[in-house]
Write a structure and sequence with these properties.
This protein is an alpha+beta fold. It has helices at 2-13, 27-39, 45-51, 101-116, 130-136, 187-191, 210-213, 239-242, 262-269, 279-287, 297-304; strands spanning 18-23, 68-75, 79-85, 88-94, 123-125, 141-142, 148-149, 157-164, 255-260.
Length: 322
C-alpha cells in the first residue's frame, strides 16, 4: 500500500498538485476538535451556522468500505473581473476557492479513479473541513491569518477531499503548525482592518472577517462597523494574503476573467431577474463560473463602485442562476 500511495502522490506532484492521506478514523478527532472550540466559545454562533452546513462527516453510502481520506491541493490563482461604469473600466479580483469548485472536484476525482480503479480501489468526493485536515495531515502550515499555506504552492490553491477504500498503512496526524516566519511577523495582523487577526489568540475572529459579511445576498445590509473602503474583492478578501512576505513569491498575475459592458453592469447592480438578462450576459456568467456567486457579488460590487452614481435598489429582487 505504501508504494501505491507514494506513486499516487508522485503522479499528482508531476502536474503541480500536493496530497496527503489519513484514515477515516480521524474523523472522530476532527469532530471533537471542532466541538471543543465551540464549547470554549472560540467559534461564534454566526460562524458555526454559516459554515457547518458545508460539511458532511457521514461516509455511509459513499463507499461501502471507506478506509481513508485523500486530500489534494490544486494551485488556483485569483480571477479578475472587469466592469465598465460611468466611462471607466474597473477590475476586481475573486480569490481562489470561489470559482470552478465542481470542475476541479471532478477533475481530481477522475485522476484518482484513473489511478486507483486498476488496483481495485475507488474514491468519491467528501465534504469535510479541508483546511483543518490539511494542517493535521502535514500537508499545510497555518499562517497567522489562519489560511492554509502549502509549501511550493502558497496560499493560492483549492483543497479538495475524497473518501477512498484505499487502506492506510502509514499516515501523519500532527498538531497544526504555524509558518515559522509568522512567529515574529505582524504583516497580516496590521494589514487586516477589521481586527479579525489579533495578537491575543491564534484562532481567527471569523465573525470580524470581511469574507463572512460579503457572502450575503443583495437584500442584506452590511454591518455598520464595516468601512466601505475595506472592500477589495468581488467576494471574499485578499488583504492578508497580499501583504504576507511568505506568499510574496506566489503573487502571480491574476487570471483574466470576463468583461461586462456598462449596460451589463447596470443589470447586475440592479439584481435584474434572469429572464431579463440578455443571453450573451448569461453565457459570460456561466462560462466564468460566476453563477455560484451571482446572488452575492452585485451587493459587493455596489460598495466597490461607491462614490459613483449607482442605480436605486428600492423594490428590486436579486436574481439567481442556480
Amino acid at each position: 500500500m505504501k508504494e501505491l500511495k507514494e506513486q499516487l502522490f508522485h503522479n499528482l506532484e508531476n502536474i503541480g498538485y500536493k496530497a496527503s492521506i489519513v484514515s477515516v478514523t480521524q474523523l472522530d478527532e476532527l469532530l471533537e476538535e471542532i466541538d471543543n472550540k465551540r464549547q470554549r466559545g472560540l467559534l461564534s454562533l454566526e460562524v458555526i451556522k454559516e459554515y457547518e452546513q458545508d460539511f458532511n462527516f457521514d461516509n455511509s453510502g459513499k463507499l461501502k468500505k471507506a478506509r481513508s481520506i485523500v486530500l489534494v491541493a490544486v494551485p488556483q490563482l485569483p480571477t479578475g473581473v472587469t466592469f465598465s461604469w460611468k466611462g471607466k473600466d474597473r477590475t476586481f479580483p475573486i480569490p481562489p476557492t470561489y470559482l470552478h469548485a465542481r470542475k476541479i472536484n471532478n477533475q481530481v476525482l477522475a485522476l484518482l479513479k484513473e489511478f486507483l480503479n486498476p488496483a481495485g480501489y475507488d474514491a468519491t468526493v467528501a465534504l469535510l473541513p479541508k483546511k483543518l485536515l490539511a494542517a493535521r495531515s502535514g500537508l499545510a502550515f497555518y499562517g497567522k491569518n489562519n489560511i492554509a499555506f502549502i509549501p511550493g504552492i502558497g496560499f493560492y490553491h483549492r483543497l479538495v477531499s475524497f473518501f477512498s477504500d484505499l487502506p492506510v498503512s502509514e499516515e501523519t496526524w500532527i498538531e497544526p503548525r504555524m509558518i515559522r516566519m509568522c512567529r515574529n511577523c505582524r504583516a497580516c495582523l496590521t494589514g487586516c482592518p477589521t481586527g479579525a487577526i489579533s495578537s491575543e489568540r491564534f484562532l481567527l475572529h471569523a465573525e470580524r472577517c470581511i469574507t463572512l459579511h460579503n457572502e450575503k445576498p443583495l437584500s442584506t445590509p452590511f454591518p455598520e462597523w464595516i468601512d466601505p473602503s475595506w472592500h477589495n474583492c468581488l467576494v471574499g478578501c485578499l488583504l492578508c494574503q497580499g501583504v504576507c512576505p511568505v506568499n510574496k513569491r506566489f503573487l502571480s498575475n491574476t487570471v483574466e476573467g470576463p468583461c461586462f459592458s456598462e449596460e451589463e453592469t447596470e443589470l447586475l447592480l440592479n439584481g435584474t431577474p434572469e429572464e431579463k438578462i440578455p443571453p450573451e450576459t448569461i453565457k459570460k456568467l456561466k462560462e466564468a463560473d460566476l453563477t455560484e456567486i451571482v446572488e452575492v457579488f452585485p451587493r459587493n460590487l455596489r460598495v466597490l463602485l461607491s462614490g459613483q452614481e449607482l442605480p436605486d435598489l428600492q423594490g428590486v429582487e436579486v436574481f439567481s442562476l442556480r
